[in-house]
Every structure is written in structure tokens, then in C-alpha cells.
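pipeline/complex-builder :: batch 7 item 3
reading input block
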Amino acid sequence: MVPLTFTGKDDLFKAIFEAANEGRRARLGELVELGLTNGLESFELADFLVLQALRICDTFNRSEIYFNEFYLSIDSIDKVLQMLRPDLAFTTSSQLTKSTVVLGTIQGDVHEMGKTVLRILLEKEGIQVVDLGANVKPEAFIKAIQKHGARVLGVSCLLSPAMIGMIQLKKRMQEANLEYIWTIIGGKATSRNFAVNVGFSEWASTAVQGAKLIISYLGVKG
Amino acid sequence: MIDRNGLSCKVTVLPYGVEIVVPPQTNLAEAIRKTGLPFMAPCGEKGTCGKCKVLVLSGKDTILPPSSEEIAVLNGLELKGYRLACRVHLRIGHVKVAIQQETLLNSDQYQLQNSFLDLTLKPEPQIIKIPCTLPVVSGDQGEGYRDRLSQLLQCLNHKGNRGSKFNLQALKQIGKLFPVDEHVITLVSRSHNAIIAIEEGDTGQEVLGLGIDLGTTKIALYLIDLLTGSLLSSASTVNPQIQYGEDLMTRLSYCLASQENIVYLQKAVFNAINSLISRVCDKAGRKQEHIYDLSVVGNPCMIELFLGITPQSLAFAPFLPVDCHSRTIEVSGFEISLFVNSSAEVYVLPAIGGFVGADNVAAQLSTGFHRQVSKGAWLLMDIGTNTEIVLKTPHVWLACSCASGSAFEGMHIKHGQKAVIGAINKVLINDVTYEVVYQTIGGEKPCGICGTGLIDTLAELLRIGIIEPTGRFKKGIISKRLRSNPESGTEFVLCWQEETEIEQDVVISEKDIYELLQAKAAIRTGCEMLLKVAGVNINEIEELVIAGAFGEYLDAINAIRIGLLPKVPIDRIRIVGNAAGRGAVMVLVAQSYSRLAEEIALQTTHYNLSRDDNFMSEYSRYMFLNT
């Protein structure tokens, strides 16, 4: 194991790269602390971590790593990013920063990794994200949209029975006059057909694609 | 079926040569199933698993070309004329398709463990049989049913029987009994209370019971002589519901799509049970109408579908059954279309909660688990498509269920298979040469690998150091047995084509290993989380009981090496086979056990893993082979 002494930015980033691959949350946290105490900027470290998340998503999508490695890596990156967040002042210039996105995994489902990746990617752009977590009732989505004045809603679903919740959500949104909210769905159980049939605005096959679609929507409309 | 214009959709299925006519727009998978062939669609006809691919031989012009999604699944095979049957909607015309045998569910590929049959119970039969002779009716037509009835009652009273009630089924039979000459009949009474049947001749020795173990993947039946408590015969088959989805979640979403679908699933199970009933009776040379008592065990989803209850609440988090029935459900055979005596009663054993059902209660019952009272900890793992784990200490009695999937039952593994003749069940690999020594069931040429063989293979690959703890093959190792396959990653050849029965190399690939890792992680996580919640250290485990999928061949050292089982000393592990089925039989043989079952169901607390925030990270951790 490499001892925790600062021997330059390149060495540190190499160590972060390895710790992210191995999904070692504690070590990743220590390395980031080490960087901060040695004069590196929060945003530099955060950017590098997000880059690692993207790279790990990519290797996962290419089946080069298994789900558990993916989970442990993304989970540790996410936790360390949250540690950095308070002192992050993302300086993205666009109006993206003014937009709020509500995210959650639908009621009846507890799988939220894709959604977590999406949050990481959106937050990097300075977008305000309200992450409601997993097993979220349609009512809770409605309340969050109203409370935060969100412009975009992202909902994920891995288990197919839970897709019923997606249909209920659409109904509730109509009843609450929130139909105009741009809503994107994703997750293993969903498909473009399903999104079109139920009447959602977009469907994404992966979290990375979802982030691109949301950013481009907000960028254009903003 | 012919529509108004006299035009129809006809399908011919080769190599079986069966034909069927269906209405336009029927999907091809459904049409093939209607021919009676047990055709598989493990993804629940979503067009994602690719298992239902068929080769269209003629009539291509009558069906629409494949969509881009279908092409993505077919991955080039569409150019050779393959289609996904579940994605093809038939139009007017005649289509000829060929299906591969491996897409059919083979009903007899399962073997039961022989160690099952060692019951030493004192039978307490509920059914009392009273053979008696009916005298010829003397006198004119004025005497009739009523006189006959009173004669029968007298006859009963002679035997010290309180019973005076005849149930409807018995009354119906009285009508048929007017003898010309003196002749012998047998009155059948349940618990001395009512006459439930009247049979011709002396059938005093024919008191049968039937234990039914409804598994997600397998259904097993045990025919029992209730007078002696001995097992007469048994049979098992694939649960035909598998064609509507291999795992419970897919099956549940199929149910929720329409109320009719629940009826299909229920009928599928009844049909399978009925054909097994005639099989066990034929084997034992007994009659179906002499089956008076049935007991059913299974996970809550299987039980709800058996009873025709909509299993909606099981499909969504927090995944609870309609009724955490801590009491036995009694159903008369009359209400359920099973081919047994029409007055038969069905006992559905109680459930614990979540997906922990009657099968787990039965497993606890038959392993004597509930009796453990000393100060250590006992762990019971009933491994199957759904694995249930119970932890009992003087302070806690907890059970959880893990969606382990059917990888260890051979599903989703390229050369995976049930424990049948020719299945590899033991594997040794040389550290240096990577030469493989294996053993097959029955000593025949290998045709695949069964669960215990898969565990051995993983453990050996890990031991000789050619796979990483992640489950992937190490880079840079050169051996003729290692090669890369574009579809399934690197693969290791266990036996060469010429050694096998199947005219191809038997291999294990990274894709197979991934499936096994997910199954083992699910099982082990459940285990460790129960221990953690109860604050039990692994050293405190006095006994680890392994029930279910693995038979006597399970190499516990290897199972521990790959992290499927917690690291307890080998001499504390007891392997018991189908404990749930045995529990079902115990309840049949001696009714007092059903009260014990209710007690177990009440006392055991269900621990919901899906509610534990640490589940995903623990699961991810236990997917590594060295954890």
C-alpha cells in the first residue's frame, strides 16, 4: 500500500484512480483530504472524481467490470464528492445553475445506482439536484417539484412490476397540472416505447445519456 | 380458428410437426405454447432474453420484419432467418418455424434425492376406514335411501363411531350402492366426525396423502401411506410457470398485467400437479381417489398463485404477502381442481412474512430447527431460486429471503444443468498443468455441469490462481484450456468435445461466473446480515444446516472457499436435501405437526433485507470470491 504522503499531483491522481477502481471509500477520502491540505482546489479534485465515475460507467457498460465493482466505485466516489460539496463553488457559466432537477427511483423499487450516477453528472454542471432516493411515492415527486420549482424530473425503475408506479406518477402529474414538467425516465425495466406510450418527455438508456439529454434540454431552454 | 373471411393464421412447428390455427395478431410464442409444447420465455415475453428464438422456414412474407430492438437481441442471427417468437405477431397465412430443443422445458430432467425417505414418525391418520358388509335390501320399493342410510349408520355405531353426518360427496355415492347381492363397502370418515366417502369393496388399507413442494423452479410430489407413514413414490417436474418468467419478479409482473394471467399461472400449476399425481400413483400402483389429505408448501408467491390470490403486494417494496398467515389454511379438494378424492382436504402451511413462506416453516420443522434451545446459534439455509435463511439463538429467531436466482440450478449458465445422469458434479484442476479431473453422476460421458460441479469449478479456478477474486480470468496466462469468446469473455475448457456427450467442449465462461457470483453474493449477504442484526459471531454457530438445491455431493470446503457459505468449521455443517418437502410430508403423517408449524411461523420474525440501507454495499462486497 502506498503510504499517505504527498509526492505531487500526478502521484495523488494516480492513487485516486486506483482507489476509485477498487471502490475503497475510506482511502479515497484520505487521498482527497491529502490533496486539499497540499493546496489542491476542491473543484480540481471533484472534476477528477467525476471523470473517474464516467470512466467506470464506461467500463461497466462494456462489461469489463461487474456490478459489484461498479457499485463500490461509484458509491465511494459519490460519498467523497458529497464531502467536497460544501466548499465547491461550481463556476459553470450557463443558466444551468439556476435550474433544479428532481430525481428518484420509483415506489416499489430500491435500485438507485443509475440515478446516483446521473446526480453526480448533473451536480458537476452546477445543476441543483434534489435526490429523493429510492422507493419514492408519486406524491413525493409532486411535492418536491412544487417545493423546489423544479423544471426537470428524472425517474428510474429497475424492477418491471414497479413500472405501474410510473404510470400512476404520470396520472398524478396531470391531476396536479404539472404535465409541462419535462420528465425523463430510465432504468432496466423501461424502454423508449414505454416512455412514449405513457407520455414521458424522454427516455435514456444509460445514466450518462440521461445527463446529456437533461443538460441539453436545460441549456437550450435556459 | 377461422375469421369471418375464412382466412386464418396457421403455424407449423418443426421438428415436432405440430400445427395450430390461431386468430390474427396472436404472438408466435403464445401460438407455439398452444400446441402444447412447453416453450420458454424466461423474460416474460418482453423480447429481452432472446431465449425464444425460432428459425422461420417459410411464410416470412406474412410477418412483419424485426424491429430494431429485436435485431439488437438477435445480434446478427436475424440475417439467418431467426426471430424472437415473443416479438412476432401472426398475420393471415401459414408460417413454418423450427424450434431448438433447448428452448423446451424438459419435464423429467430432475432427480430427487434418495436420502429423503427416512421418516420415523408415529402416524396419526385423520382418515378412518370402516369396511363393512351391506346386507341385501329386503322388502319392497318403499325402503330406499333412508333405510340404507340408517343401516350404514348402525354399522358405524357398532364401530364406536360418533359420526352421523354424511357430507354431500358421500350422500351422492350412497345412491350408487344398492347391491343386488350382499357386498362389501368401506365407509371413510374424517376424525370420527363425518362420513366423507363410501367406496366399493374393502379399501381399508388405502389411505393416501400427498405432500406438494411448490418451488419457483421445481414442483415435487410425495405420495405417502398415511397408515404407516411411509413414502410410496415421488416425482417432480419443472414448474411450468417458468414459461411466464423465470424469477418471481418477472412472474409477478406478468400477473399484474391482467387478472386472467393469474388464472393461467394457477392452471399451469394445477396441470403440472395433476400429471404428477397420476405419475406417483402409477408408480406406486395406487388410486388417485384414495388420496384424502394434501399438504402444500412453497414461498408466499407460489402459495398465493396456487390459491388464486392476486399477489400484488409481493411485487412492490416492501414486498409483503397478502396474509402473513400464521395459521394453516384449509381448503377442500373440491374447491381446487386436483384429481384426488373429492372430499380431500388441502393444508397450506403458514408463512412467516415477505418471501419467507410455508416452505421455510416446513424446512425448520423437518430439520428439528425449532427445537434448538442451547446457548449457541443455529443457522439454516434453504438454497434454491429463492433462498431462505433462518437464524436462531436463545434471544432471536429471524428469517430472511434472498433472491438468489437459479444459477446454481444450472440456469443462465452455458453448460449448466440439473443434477441428472451425465452432469459433472465434482471437479479437480491441476495447479501446474491445468488438467481437469472430473466426476459425473452415473459415471456417464459429461453433458453439462450441475450446481455442486459449478461450486467445485469456481473453487478450483480460484485455488490454482487463474481467476481474480473479482471472478475474471487473470491476464497473460497461457493454456490451451483458456480462450476468449467474443460473447461471454474468457472461458475455461473443462472437457474437450471428444470426451463429452454433447459434441462440443464443456466450458465455464466469465459470463457464467458472473451469474454464479450474483447468486452466491445474494445468499451470503442474507446470511451475514442476519448474523449482524442479531449480533452473532461466526464462532458462535453450533450448526449450519444446508437444505435445498445441493445434494450430498456438495463440497462444503469449496462452498466456503468461494464464499457461498460463512466460514464455519466443516464438522458443524449438516447437509439435509429437500427439507421443505419432508416437512410437508410430516404434517400429513401426523397432524400434531401442523400446530407446531403454526408455532414456528408465529415465533419466527421476518427480517426485510430490502429495507436495510447497507444491503447493496454488503452485496457488492460479497460478490468477490475471497470474501
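note: Residues 1-5, 103-118 of chain B have pLDDT under 50 and may be disordered.
queue -> next item
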